[in-house]
Structure formats: structure tokens, C-alpha cells
Amino acid sequence: MACSLTLCLCPKTHEEALHKIKKYFKGIFFNVIIFYYRVLIYAIAVFDTQTAAAKAISIFKIPRAGRPNKSQKLFLDAHFEGYTSSGKTKIAHYRWPGPGKKILLAHGWESNSARWTPYIPGIQDLGFDIYALDAPAHGLSEGREFTPEIYADAIESIATEKKIDIIIGHSAGAYSALIYAHRNRINETVKSLVLLAPTGRIRDFIEKTFQMFKLKESVRQAYFNGFEELYKHELSYYDSDNLIKSVRQPGLLIHDKKDRTLPYADSVHIAENWPNARFITTEGFGHRLRSSIVIQHILDYLREIR
């Protein structure tokens, strides 16, 4: 019997069908929201191009996902240790105790600490004392907005309180860990970094946002001028391949050639400026790097430095 048009692609289960339907309508909703904000930003740009550009960026400070689903919450609740204050925001953190060095796991944008579920058994077997945190506005942490700087503050709060030896970060978590390491380059309390598919060139990342809203060149340039005036640095100062120059800790860098979210080429530049790191290239695992092969690379590295 032919499958119903409603349950497109003949999903094998009712749950899979519902997931596909929800994903379809989420896509429509997202496009409607983008259209609404595109009109709003164009209207603001008539009067103030810099404010219009800042509005475009601010929209992407608010995650649309990252809160745990039911199964993730069950997993996280079982290992929940408490909250640590980062500024005015309470950051949720979790623990899997062990006798060895302390590791902090930092997930990426619109994710939460449950993403580390496949990694934890192997790390536990090596004897590490494992911590994980939910980024601001993600998981069980408080907050409404997210930026890498805010996340770096949260990482610093946990790393200082728990005396963390090693940080493993994915995507925005890797970039925020790098910001933290760059800030603390004089007082190197963390001994090693593992960066998985980190954010690289900041201008390229922001340009993708501008392209989504189809902003005019005058609006884009106004934003970049305002950024440099506010932070007293050119945008390229915050590129990962520049920040890594001040980091003396050894580490592991992994990026997939087929990553369609953050360019593999950015990690090539990071590796060129991080001589005491091991750079591993994968192919076919995408941005999320969900593979037992990736986990094994990390375990091999941790085994050497434990």
C-alpha cells in the first residue's frame, strides 16, 4: 500500500513521521520569522544603518533550540551537580566522578551537555574526573542570550571553581574555550585543549548572517565599523587562528572536510598557528562529528596526557 502523502518519505515509525512533520513546519516558521525580521531591519536601515546591522546580529544571540528533551533531561538530571554563578547567570553543570585529572566538556550552539553521552563511558574508563556545563540560555542553565564572550565567562567560572585541567569543546564551545585560554594566557591553569570543529573566521560567520537577511553593503560596513570602535580591535583579532597564537598549551584539533556549518579551511589556519597541537582531519562526519572514530581519537589523546 502506498504511504500517505502526509507521512512523506514513508517513515518506518509513527515517531519518525511526527519528527519529519515537526521539522517541516519548523522550517516554514523559521522562514516566516526571517522574512519578518528582514522587513524590520530594512525599515530600521532607512534611518540608521548601524542599528539595523546590530539588530540582525542580536536575533542570533537567542537560541531557538538547546533545551533538553525528555530523554536528555533524564540523563542530565541523573548527573546534575548544581549551579555556578557567571555574572548574574546561573550555569548548570554535571559530574561523573573519577580519581584522575579534571575534564570540562563544553557543547556547541543550540545543544546541551547531553551531546556528550557517547563520549563519557570511554573517558570514565580512563579514570578522569568529568564535568560538563550547559552554555548560557542552553540546557538547564539560565539566561536568554548567548555570545561566545558570555560562554567564555561561564567556562572560566567553572574552570576556576573546579580547577579544571583539560577542556574539550565543540563548535561554539570550542571557540569559547579558546577565548578563555587566550584571556588566561598568563595564568595557564588549564593544561590542554581539545577543539572540535571550532568557529574560525569571525567576519565570514557574521557575513553568513547578513546574507540570510540580504542586507545592503552599507549596513554591513556600518556594523563592522561599529564593532571595531566598540572593541578597539579589528574583527580579525578575534579570529581563532589569531587567538591561538597566544595559547601555549598543547592540544588536539579535529575538523571534518565535509563540515557545511563551519569551514574546514579555518581549522587548517588554526593548526598552522598552533605548533604544539595535533591536527586530525576526518571526512564524512560533518559538523557534529558523530562517530566512534572521532571518540577514539580523543580517547587516544587523553590516554597520552592523563
Brief characterization of the structure:
With 306 residues, the chain is of the alpha/beta class. The chain is built from eleven helices and eight strands.
| Name of the CATH homologous superfamily of the domain at 70-202 and 232-305 | Alpha/Beta hydrolase fold, catalytic domain
| Strand runs, count | 8
Beta-strand proportion: 15-25%
At CATH's second level, what is the architecture of the domain at 70-202 and 232-305? 3-Layer(aba) Sandwich
Helix content: 40-55%
Q: Give average pLDDT, whole number.
A: 87
CATH topology tier name of the domain at 70-202 and 232-305: Rossmann fold
Uncertain stretches: 1-12
Gross geometry: globular
Per DSSP, the total helix count is 11
User: What does the largest sheet look like?
Assistant: 8 strands, mixed
Determine Rg (CA atoms, Å).
Answer: 20 Å
Q: How do the strands of the widest beta sheet line up side by side?
A: 1-2-4-3-5-6-7-8
Structural class: alpha/beta
Distance between the termini: 57 Å
* N to C succession of SSEs: HHHEEEHEHEHEHHHEHEH
